[in-house]
Design brief:
The chain has 411 residues and is an alpha/beta fold. It has twelve helices and 18 strands. 36% of the residues lie in helices and 20% in strands. The strands form five sheets. The chain has a seven-stranded parallel sheet, with helices on both faces. Strands 16-15-17-18 form a four-stranded antiparallel sheet. Strands 12-9-14 form a three-stranded mixed sheet. The protein is globular and about 55 Å long.
Length: 411
């Protein structure tokens, strides 16, 4: 099939793109790179060993969207493009309605004009609001508690009406629970230009020494240990669910909303423990007041995905944390234009390098680089890889450190 992937350079979109290429679909990406970089698409190309077209533009730019559909003539759309921060949606609701709702309407109109009949839409568990004690199945009432959730709810209804009015059309509304983790290659992961508000990237940053401690938003919820409980889903499983949804939509008409999760709840404290295990690092935290708009518990009922899509999640929390950690500390940890920092771990006599590790773009605070942060070390030093200027955090004379840095990173 020919698939137009809006938002294909983003976190979930890039993982789905890789799966689509792996399944030999013909693909084009439509993205304005407002929260991603074209570089991601280069990496996907290399990983997949396959090429695809890229349209750089905003989905609300109807003329350009038309042009891309006229050229590529897709059979289906995977529609990831949109804004996703609950907090920002409270501050800028109109921007959220414009990008998410108006943008989606433009996509649907252009699809119909070009006889493109199948849509897989990135919806969210946020459409449910608080699930309470009732099972969070697809028939649960929809009462989103913030503007972001309402954009997803409105777009779901719009797509449903679209498939009712155009009888040849089909759509699957995938209600993601909490996507985490990264591709095991370490080449793609959550790499937005906006600072992430989500739990796992924050925990990974604390574990890497890039932040001092994690704020736990609320310790008095009616959950297993008082902290918020969520259904975390590995992004690789989520990407696979998109392929299954595409197959399903391709063979039917009408519209189905389907939960995508594992059916298992994990608390914030449990997630911290899993990341400590995956990283071998301690994650300091402090419990602060609840975050506005948060619900206590959000866990999917997943029978419908299994029944209709023949899909179930395969990966658990430990692999989610492992791949998130590998991504956080790997070679693409930097934001655009900034250089990764390399952590050099030395022995007590400062005569040998025990380990070098790329940390991420932000300079770890001196106070967070203590021996307790890493395993089997006595002294920690940190240098910037490029240019080869060294900055001593603890211990060594810069010239000695420079020599070691060159040995560790000869270019
Ligand atoms: P992301 O921000 O990483 O990716 C979104 C992509 O869309 C980015 O590449 C961005 O540049 C592009 N984009 C944004 N607005 C655009 C516009 N107007 N025109 C063209 N391109 C535009 O987000 P993600 O985590 O990959 O999420 C993908 C989709 O899944 C979103 O619709 C999001 O609401 C939904 N979703 C995400 C999560 C999550 O936790 N990641 C959970 C539930 C639902
Ligand atoms: N959370 C937290 N500290 C953070 C980020 C999140 O305690 O820095 C909690 C949050 O209150 C919720 C859970 O982690 O209980 C998941 O939050 P996230 O933002 O990742 O997902 P969402 O709330 O959108 O489901």
């Amino acid at each position: 099939m020919k698939i137009m992937v809006t938002g294909g350079a983003g976190y979930v979109g890039s993982h789905a793109l890789l799966k689509l290429l792996g399944a030999n679909h013909e693909v084009a990406v439509f993205d304005n790179f407002s929260n991603s970089s074209p570089d991601v698409l280069e990496r996907v190309r290399k990983l997949a060993g396959a090429n695809f077209r890229i349209y750089r533009g905003d989905i609300r730019n109807t003329a350009y969207l038309e042009q891309s559909f006229a050229e590529f003539q897709p059979d289906a759309v995977m529609h990831f493009a949109g804004l996703k921060s609950i907090g920002a949606s409270n501050d800028q609701p109109l921007d959220y309605y414009s990008q998410n709702v108006t943008g989606s309407i433009e996509v649907l109109k252009v699809m119909q004009r070009h006889d493109c009949r199948h849509m897989v839409f990135s919806s969210s568990a946020t459409v449910y609001g608080e699930c309470g004690d009732l099972p969070c199945d697809e028939n649960h009432s929809l009462q989103p508690t913030n503007p972001y959730g309402r954009t997803k709810y409105f777009v779901e209804e719009i797509i449903r009406d679209w498939t009712t009015s155009w009888r040849d059309a089909s759509a699957v509304l995938l209600r993601y629970f909490n996507p985490v983790g990264a591709d095991p290659s370490g080449q793609i992961g959550e790499d937005g230009t906006d600072t992430p508000n989500n739990l796992t990237p924050h925990i990974a940053r604390v574990a890497a020494g890039l932040s001092d401690r994690l704020n736990i938003y609320g310790g008095d919820y009616d959950t297993i240990d008082g902290t918020g409980e969520r259904d975390y889903i590995h992004v690789d499983d989520l990407a696979q669910a998109h392929l299954a949804a595409l197959d399903y939509a391709g063979q039917r008409t009408g519209c189905e909303a389907i939960n995508i999760g594992t059916g298992l709840g994990t608390s914030v404290l449990e997630m911290i423990a899993a990341m400590e295990q995956a990283s071998g690092r301690h994650v300091p935290y402090v419990v602060v007041p609840r975050r506005s708009g948060d619900v206590a518990r959000s866990v999917a009922t997943v029978d419908k995905a299994e029944r209709l899509l023949n899909w179930t999640a395969k990966q658990g929390i430990s692999n989610m944390c492992k791949t998130a950690w590998d991504w956080q500390t790997g070679q693409h940890a930097g934001k655009r234009g900034l250089k990764p920092q390399r952590l050099i771990v030395c022995d007590e006599r400062k005569s040998a390098i025990l380990e070098t590790r790329t940390l991420g773009i932000e300079k770890p605070r001196t106070s967070s680089l203590t021996a307790g942060n890493a395993i089997n070390v006595d002294v920690l030093c940190q240098v910037s890889v490029k240019p080869k200027r060294t900055s001593v955090i603890e211990g060594w004379h810069p010239r000695v450190l420079q020599r070691h840095a060159q040995q560790a990173h000869p270019d």
